[in-house]
Amino acid sequence: MKSELRLGIAGLGTVGAKVAQLIERKAELLAERVGRSIRITAISARDRSRGRGFDADGMAWFDDPVELAEKGEIDAFVELIGGADGVARQAVEAALSRGIPVVTANKALLAHHGVALARLAAENDTEILFEAAVAGGIPAIKTMREALSANEVSRVYGILNGTCNYILTRMEKEGISFDACLKDAQALGYAEADPTFDIGGFDAAHKLAILTSLAFGTEISLESIFIEGISKITIADIVAAAELGYRIKLLAVALNTDSGIEQRVHPAMIPARSSLAQVDGVTNAVAIDSDLLGSILLAGPGAGGAATASAVLSDIMDVAGGFVPPTLGLPPSRLQPYHRARMRAHEGGYYIRLAVFDRVGAFASIASRMAENGISLESIVQRKADRRAGEGTAPVILVTHDTTEAAIRAALEGLSRDGHLSGEPQMIRIEDLD
Amino acid sequence: MKSELRLGIAGLGTVGAKVAQLIERKAELLAERVGRSIRITAISARDRSRGRGFDADGMAWFDDPVELAEKGEIDAFVELIGGADGVARQAVEAALSRGIPVVTANKALLAHHGVALARLAAENDTEILFEAAVAGGIPAIKTMREALSANEVSRVYGILNGTCNYILTRMEKEGISFDACLKDAQALGYAEADPTFDIGGFDAAHKLAILTSLAFGTEISLESIFIEGISKITIADIVAAAELGYRIKLLAVALNTDSGIEQRVHPAMIPARSSLAQVDGVTNAVAIDSDLLGSILLAGPGAGGAATASAVLSDIMDVAGGFVPPTLGLPPSRLQPYHRARMRAHEGGYYIRLAVFDRVGAFASIASRMAENGISLESIVQRKADRRAGEGTAPVILVTHDTTEAAIRAALEGLSRDGHLSGEPQMIRIEDLD
């Protein structure tokens, strides 16, 4: 059996403590599987005195994680502090500069600085592993970086945020409003006190930025992602989607198009019979289209201490085994610059829900504004007007054939100028997944 | 860059030729990703003269694959001949005996001789890689052996045979009989001229035997699998399943129970809303339940030249990278003996379709036979009798609450003795997947 692998862990919150507990509890199993024992030799966290469910005797304590990374007697550094900058970044840089491999669950760090860190790793003949940073316990990174290593990927997409999926699932199944679901999610610990990062689509965007780089061999470009959150989705949209044979999910999509790469995170209507539509609650899913495999789908827990710890341990086992592919799938020098596709040119069907004043000429205006922008309609449904509040307002639901977002926006602006809309129109992309 | 990896490939059928073509076509990409170039230095196939879409100049030709394995100037041996015994086995044993790692897509070889081969590999300090042997392009082996390396698995199950899934999907969607679907599958190349291996459940059983060993750290036990094929499934069953909210799939299941391991391959009714129920056509799916991850699901192409070649290449890349986990996830000496669970004791709901003579006393007999075997019924549906052929025969569909197969069989034997059944009863397990 090879010599033991000495680990330094910085950050002992839910995930970090779970990793340490599992290394203690499953020591024998892990050693048998990788042919080498794994031992934590150094730790760092904010509060030294707190009990964390594992025996820290014999582990060197560092108040400063950067010092641990710089001076700890370790063969691998596990960063579970979080945050794109600050000590997490400094500690990771310190470890890589010593040629020590880094295991991290830090999506923000990678989405913002992944290419620079991959370069630093390569310069020091080491790598970064980050299975836990994307889609929790789903082996998305391993699949992309190893299982698909002979493939060229054309599209990667999925449901990457458990909070949003939990809220949308409950809205659909129980008919509860977005605000009420969000409150429940916060009470259950599925959403933060400030939920913007999740429900605004930013968390999913960070994960997508990393997947995109692995998928297409390009530099990471978080700032190029079109991001729209779920807070404007109403029960009316969810009901209309169901009637049309769709379900609404917060979808993250990256496509390799002729004009460049398209990355977007937004609510989408997907066919109710598709595999992705069955992904409910806090579950995540990643689908990958590639030249040799066609389509594959991975689904599983997107978050949670045990699932995230499982992914961190899988990376630690890979380090113990001795081989890790290049951080971003290719040597950093071979990553292509990111070229952004013309987003407005994306063709697809759209769902549009309008609140229209119930008066003569409204329907004619809708029809002509759509026609003048070259939009053909697959279906139009007008509900009965609600006349309780003075002049009646009728909800009108349109489903378009393939068109562009630019055309839709122009048509809606025209309609608004015509004075027929009593409120903001809702527009949701339709993704006709297989 | 490290020295090149020299490959010997034995077997140049659809998959073998595709692997060789891809190594030629994607040479640069593969070398960049693994930091090492990959070159085929030796080949063996039945017919030397046939063109196969790649340039064989500079590759040593062997008429005998065993000789290639014994004497080829190679760093890894790729076995794509097939068959549990004969030259495939001899060649693999020859390569392992030289300490050369083996990449294979041969499920029969592994299901029958996997443990002995794993021992031979370990004795010679090498390993066998077999991603392509189970579920084609789905990274089931990599996920089980690497991504879940810190997990203890409690259940692995899935749809492991594309031919059966294609037939069942078409029967359901188009209302075509089993025989007609089978003929189409044969015409399309989805089924062999002798389809027994696929539709009898044996192909799925081979794959399950391998997954079970990886899941539970036990020796492989193909002979312990309860196997039932799909040839008795009728359109009537599929229609009844849909009415009850289920779909019928050929399911492969391995469970770790208190009394031992249960392995079975049989048609099952699974909830129509489950993720597995959406897996249509030739697609495969593998679901794994484990302590840390809860449940994960992988779905993708279960067969086909490109998908299988992709899995073979993923293994070749792992060999090039230099680390491979133990063949069966643990050193062979640590594999536990296989203990078989008492199959008849498996509790679950059952669907039963009876053809009952439409006469006084039939229903009373059903009710009392079920009651005396402790079976409670969730639903009973009796259709109108068909009186065209003399004495009428009425189809009766029963859905039971949780019971055992032994109880069901006893009740059906009682009913048969009572003389009320006009034909063989149909019995399909209900699997209430999440």
TrEMBL record, chains A, B:
Enzyme class: oxidoreductase
InterPro entries: ACT-like_dom_sf (IPR045865), ACT_dom (IPR002912), Asp/hSer_DH_NAD-bd (IPR005106), HDH (IPR016204), HDH_cat (IPR001342), HDH_CS (IPR019811), NAD(P)-bd_dom_sf (IPR036291)
Annotated NADP(+) binding sites: A10, G11, L12, G13, T14, V15, G16, A17
Location of the ACT domain: 351-426
E.C. no: 1.1.1.3
Pathway assigned in UniProt: Amino-acid biosynthesis; L-methionine biosynthesis via de novo pathway; L-homoserine from L-aspartate: step 3/3; Amino-acid biosynthesis; L-threonine biosynthesis; L-threonine from L-aspartate: step 3/5
Binding site for L-homoserine: E192
Catalytic residues (positions): K207 (proton donor)
Keyword field: Amino-acid biosynthesis, Methionine biosynthesis, NADP, Oxidoreductase, Threonine biosynthesis
Residue sites binding NADPH per the record: K107
Pfam families in alphabetical order: ACT (PF01842), Homoserine_dh (PF00742), NAD_binding_3 (PF03447)
GO terms assigned for molecular function: homoserine dehydrogenase activity; NADP binding
GO biological process annotation, one example: methionine biosynthetic process
CDD domains found in the cross-reference section: ACT_HSDH-Hom
Annotated family: Belongs to the homoserine dehydrogenase family.
Protein name: Homoserine dehydrogenase
Organism: Jiella pacifica
